[in-house]
Amino acid sequence: MAIDKARNKNTANIGFEEKIWAAADILRGNMDASEYKHVVLGLIFLKYISDKFEERYQELVNEGEDMEEDRDEYTAHGIFFVPPTARWGVVANASRKPEIGMVIDDAMRVIEKENKRLKDILPKNYGRPELDKRRLGDVVDIFTNIKMIEHGQDKDILGRTYEYCLVQFASQEGKKAGEFYTPSCIVRTLVEVLKPFEGRIYDPCCGSGGMFVQSTQFVDSHAGNRADISIYGQESNPTTRKLCLMNLAIRGIEGNIGEYNADTFHNNLHGTQKFHFILANPPFNLSAWGADRLKDDKRFKYGLPPAGNANFAWIQHMIYHLSPNGKAGIVLANGSLSGQSGGEGEIRKKIVEDDLVWGIVALPSQLFYGVQIPCTLWFLSRNKKQKGKTLFVDARSLGSMKTRNLRELSEADILKIADTFTAFDEGILENEKGFCAAVETAEIAKHDYILTAGRYVGVAEQEEDGEPFDEKMARLTDELSELWQEQHRLESVIRERLGAIGYEIR
Q1: What's the pLDDT tens digit per position in 219-272?
Q2: Nearest by Cα to 61 from 73, 48, 49
Q3: How far is Cα 101 from Cα 104, in angstroms, rounded to an integer?
Q4: Which residues are CB-neighbours of 68 under 8 A, at least 6 positions away?
Q5: pTM score, two decimals?
Q6: CA–CA gap between residue 52 and residue 47 (Å, rounded)
Q7: Which of 137, 158, 173 is the last residue of a domain?
Q8: Does residue 181 sit in the same domain as residue 154?
Q9: Each residue of 91-130: pLDDT tens digit?
Q10: Which 3 state secondary structure label does DSSP give 120?
Q11: Residues near 26 by beta carbon (within 8 Å), at least 6 away in sequence
Q12: Which domain range does residue 498 map to?
């Protein structure tokens, strides 16, 4: 029951999310979404740590021992110490002043100075001339009226708000935003299957850190100990890397994201390190990734991937970094399952023959914001419990539409997939036509090592509805006739309306 409560808390709709997005909306028109994103996310961070500081400050005042300015009284409780000149009250009092941007920048600098783990990651460009200070002041006023700590003590209060804004930004920016934001239902599916209770967790293209956040929440919700896991990551985009560090900081998550942003293929910051769990959503079908400079790279044991598509470069990079009992969950474009160009088919064959593919999950389309492309989850394992077998899951019928363009997997859907992997590992899985199948490597070889789930799980048998065939055909043809008649009627109406304004359809 405790686990269910924790899960529900993560997906609960908190009331002030919409208010914060309204604050972002104020800046629309003054700058591009990619710019105001960082303005708003920086303020979210500042307001949250200020609220947490103020809560602890008041506790110390009430204790009456004059300890409220003692830095250790905050850090010992996992709370960032906020110096007097950086506290939200100072920012709020300047909201109507032309120097509001400089006040925020100064607050960010002071907080970085007082908290070494935040060094060089907070945005400090609120004072730039092109940022409308009146609108910025309006945003500050909205934030002033939002008391995050009033909504509960769970650290994920801000995390959920942060995620909400990332979702909205992703919707605004379309495919671009998908580079750093992975829908939480996909991340939760990876985590529920992998079950990262303890060990080293790695994401070689970590974006804003969603994989790490869900992993630590998994540990928390299953009464585990965060100290049992270690976080490692790498990100090539400098701005996105800072978002990740802020995201981890507000959740109280320690992580090694490297000393700087770097390209994972050409500057592998974690070298020969091996990991117990790898979770990643690499850029789909990345071209021009520099294959010509990596011809002799030891990571590409199964063959150099084509220069025009990095899918198998990512897969092999992660295989290289897996520990002897390590597992990986990777989000990839469907082309990775069947592509043959540039030697991809041969690379895939060797990976399957090495018994590294634990399972393949076909996901429904419309899970990503602004992107219709369907995708697949690859699960790899260095030490599979079911040797010589691969699990195929066709989950394309799961999920439900949350908006006209966006689908989401429910908690029940996610657990159904995870439970299927558990049953497979325990050797008690019963193949379910149209949904799942445990397949011998020899059978995969007969299909030229193509890993499309539908080939192996088949089509679910349709239940008979009891209606005799002749009656059904008569009913359906009558319905079709009515639809055609309505179509002709509407065509006449459209012709008439267009004709009335001078347009003829010939």
Answers
A1: 988 888 888 999 999 999 888 888 889 888 878 888 999 999 999 999 999 999
A2: 73
A3: 5
A4: 57, 60, 61
A5: 0.81
A6: 9
A7: 173
A8: no
A9: 999 999 999 999 999 999 999 998 888 888 899 999 999 8
A10: coil
A11: 135, 138, 139, 142
A12: 469-506
